[in-house]
Amino acid sequence: MQKPVIIIGAGLSGLHAASLLTEQGIACKVIEARDRLGGRILSASVPNQENLGRFDLGPTWFWPQYEPKIAGFVSKLGLETFVQQNDGDLLVERFQRKPPERCLMQENVHERGVRITGGMKSLIDALAKTIPSSIIELETRVSKIFLDQAGEITVEVEKAEGERKQVTAAHVIMALPPRLVASHIEFSPALPAELMADITGKPTWMGSQAKAVAVYERPFWRDSGLSGLVLSSAGPLQEIYDASPIDGAGALFGFFGITSEVRQEMGQEKIAELVTNQLVKLFGRDAENPLAILYKDWSNDAETAVLEDSSPFKNYASYGQPPISGLWEEKLIFSGTETNAQFSGHLEGALHSAETAVARIIALRK
């Protein structure tokens, strides 16, 4: 019986790798610690009001003019898209006790990002349909990977209810943030020191970030000629964008300027209060009573980030393929957006890395 390729992580990169391997007739299995697909792609709805739409708490846009792979991928899957709404004036908030400044937006419309109708989860849902559901195991955590003297790989996993089992593998694709590999998975024999230094030094994209989305019945700010775009040095949100669906509800989302440590101390209720107060200051009383504030702090998501990710990173140069050598060279393959140097941190990078991983496996099988 053919040993499968084990793919650890069911985000965009892991699912794309599984789809490509399935196309090639190569047996594979996807193991995911979460209870859902998508990884850092997360589209949420207002509880009990799904009719308002889905709102992205992870990746939100892509840029077809610069990212042809994701553009072609979305088209191939038959997904509808729309251009990010930026029409109208920009607000600049420089001081907490002074009103924001209103500025004319000077931009090239062709530089705008593109969003997927129904949120980025629509991408994951469509991709999942290209993969047999039987090969995906959710709520399953990889704890150990063994390589014996004969070159046989055994992957030990633990289910949510505590059951442990071992699975043999032909190769293992690590389609998750490299720091999670270093922190959460035991290897026997141990990974080379150079490889461990590399993967522990690769910051997790979005690992220090949090996003909040305030949902309203309609995008009222457009009535007064505002784009919804805000740049703020007064916070708590430092960048705000119109996150409304193509029609219907209105929404504003923002990235935080306060650190993950401060966010943890405040708690979600206090953060929601501060966000609402800021939006009222910026957009007036119509912003006072959002239908909901959706919130996701990626820095305290144990399936995304480790403690070292809590501080914003600057070491972009660390991104790219880890240097695998020795016994593990033909056994482990790293995937995920951090392992693609050209498009690191983007959906484009996740797709490129998956294709690189699958090409490597095909080459090893020849």
TrEMBL record:
GO molecular function, one term: oxidoreductase activity
UniProt cross-references to Pfam families, sorted A to Z: Amino_oxidase (PF01593), NAD_binding_8 (PF13450)
UniProt-listed InterPro entries: Amino_oxidase, FAD/NAD-bd_sf, Flavin_MAO
Domain of life of the native organism: Bacteria
Coiled-coil intervals, chain numbering: none
Domain Amine oxidase: 109-362
Record's protein name: Amine oxidase
Species per Swiss-Prot/TrEMBL record: Planococcus halocryophilus
